[in-house]
Design goal:
By secondary structure, this protein is mainly alpha-helical. Helices cover about 55% and strands about 0% of the residues.
C-alpha cells in the first residue's frame, strides 16, 4: 500500500543518513579518457571496501538494526587505518 511504501522510504532515508554519518558523504568520481594521453595508474582498492559493500547490501533490506554487525565491522576497519 501507499503507507507501507512511504514508511519504507522514510526508513531507508534514515538508514542512509546513518551510514553517511559514519562513512562520510558519498562521492562520485568522473574519469575522462583522452586519446594519446599516457595511461593512468590503476587505483588501489579501498582498504575497507568489503565492509562498506557488506553494509550497503544489508541496508538494502530496509532494517537498519539488523546491519549493526556490518556497521561495527566497518568502524573497526576504519580505525585500523
Amino acid at each position: 500500500s501507499m503507507m507501507s511504501g512511504m514508511a519504507t522510504g522514510v526508513g531507508m532515508s534514515v538508514a542512509n543518513r546513518a551510514v553517511d554519518a559514519v562513512m562520510g558523504p558519498r562521492q562520485t568520481e568522473v574519469v575522462h579518457r583522452h586519446e594519446g594521453a599516457p595511461p593512468a595508474a590503476v587505483a588501489a582498492p579501498a582498504t575497507c571496501q568489503l565492509q562498506q559493500d557488506q553494509l550497503s547490501q544489508c541496508m538494502k533490506t530496509g532494517d537498519a538494526t539488523a546491519c549493526q554487525f556490518y556497521l561495527d565491522a566497518l568502524k573497526a576497519c576504519q580505525q585500523q587505518q
